[in-house]
Amino acid sequence: MLYPLIRNFFFALDAETAHGIGMAGIDLLRATGIGCVLSPSVPPDPVRVMGIDFPNPVGLAAGLDKNGDHIDALAAIGFGFIEIGTVTPRPQPGNPRPRMFRIPEKQAIINRMGFNNDGVDKLLTNVAAAKFTSNGGVLGINIGKNFDTPIEKAADDYLFCLERVYGAASYVTVNISSPNTKNLRELQRDDALDALLGSLKAAQSRLADRHGNYVPLALKIAPDLDDEQLRAIADLLRRHRMDGVIATNTTISRAAVDGLPNAEQAGGLSGAPLFASSTEVLRQLSVALAGEVPIIGVGGILRGDDAAAKIAAGASLVQIYTGFIYRGPDLVAEAARAVARRRRR
To answer: What would the pLDDT profile of 70-95 be if each residue is shown by its tens digit?
Structure first.
């Protein structure tokens, strides 16, 4: 009940400024031990996906905590897993501000952050300082390429990050679908994706031998793909025996918000308008993959029923981000309960 009042304060501020203050506030609530005031209890609903045991199927999507600065505070809210990043080999500032815009009429956000982050070494320092993974928490690390790395050398950045984060991650997500890094989505083309997945899976095998531990690899894809592209990606996911796929990232479409303030801003659109298209991509992938590769459903989850609909469409897990901004911690518990009811059917 408190969150709508708090949100009114935050929504009076610039979106990125509000984000920074909000994350500091989550840290403070945890440090003072009063986080339970905002965080309802989340029922346990264990599920095993990608060879990992998740305490519940509702996770935090990458982007909210790019550098892993707030892992323990976010974990206290009740997420079944947390994904941090996107992280790149070298620190980079991202695109010029302002670069995040709300469309409250549609419970949506447009961002063109551009993989702003402090680099993989700083992220690993933060992960080492967190108690979450040492206490058995499931931590995904989302990796990308630096903006100034030529697209033909992108694999080098992904391989560098994979090697660095391998020992710290429960699973690693390969982000080739952000619309905010020039040419990045070209890596979703058949030949480019085939080569990238081949290199990553070979590295995963070497790293598993070195660490004595197999860390799953997931691929995050865009919602702006046609049927032929989706079938080609599904074939490559199976051929390379990828461990998971995340459907989907943000969209470049503005059909659902056309004419509203901020709709003309460049970047990726997330939130409620993304739900239908991201869920349709999920559904098509589920059919094409026939259960061979598990799917994490993300995009437009603003209610518990939205999360359950992702499961019904073929997802094994779900993630939230924009819904968390609009709804607050209540959404985590609501989604977890709805998914649990769906899974019991």
So the answer is: 999 999 999 999 999 999 999 999 99
Contacts of 234 (CB under 8 A, 6+ apart): 285, 288, 289, 293
Instruction: Considering the candidates 39, 170, 177, 178, report the single residue annotated as catalytic.
Output: 178
According to DSSP, the β-strands at 58-60 and 81-87 are: parallel
Token code pair at residue 17: 């400024």
Q: pTM of this prediction?
A: 0.97
Encode burial over 225-253: b for 16+ CB neighbours within 10 A, e otherwise.
beeebbebbbebbeebebbbbbbbbbbee
Question: Between the CA atoms of 310, 201, 54 and 19, what dihedral angle is there, to the nearest 10 degrees?
Answer: -70
Question: Is there a contact between 15 and 100 (Cβ–Cβ < 8 Å)?
Answer: yes
Question: What pLDDT shows up at residue 38?
Answer: 60
Cβ-Cβ contacts under 8 Å for 223 (sequence gap 6 or more): 247, 248, 249, 250, 251, 253, 274, 277, 278, 281, 299
CA pair distance 256, 216, nearest whole angstrom: 35
3 state SS of 297 = strand
Strands of the sheet with 268-271, listed across from one edge: 100-103, 108-111, 268-271
- C-alpha span between 223 and 280 (Å, rounded): 9
Q: Which two tokens stand for residue 119?
A: 């680099």
Neighbours of 12 (CB within 10 A): 8
Which DSSP state fits 269?
A: E
3-class DSSP assignment, residue 271 = strand
CA–chain centroid gap for 326, Å, is 17
Owning domain of residue 8: 3-344
Question: Helix, strand or coil for residue 155?
Answer: helix
Average pLDDT, integer, range 2-23:
94
Q: Inform me whether the pLDDT recorded for 311 exceeds 80.
A: yes
Calculate the CA 130 to chain-centre distance: 19
| E strands, 243-326, in order | 244-247, 268-271, 295-298, 317-320
Check which CATH number belongs to the domain holding 124 and give it.
3.20.20.70
Number of domains the chain contains: 1
178 catalytic? Reply is yes
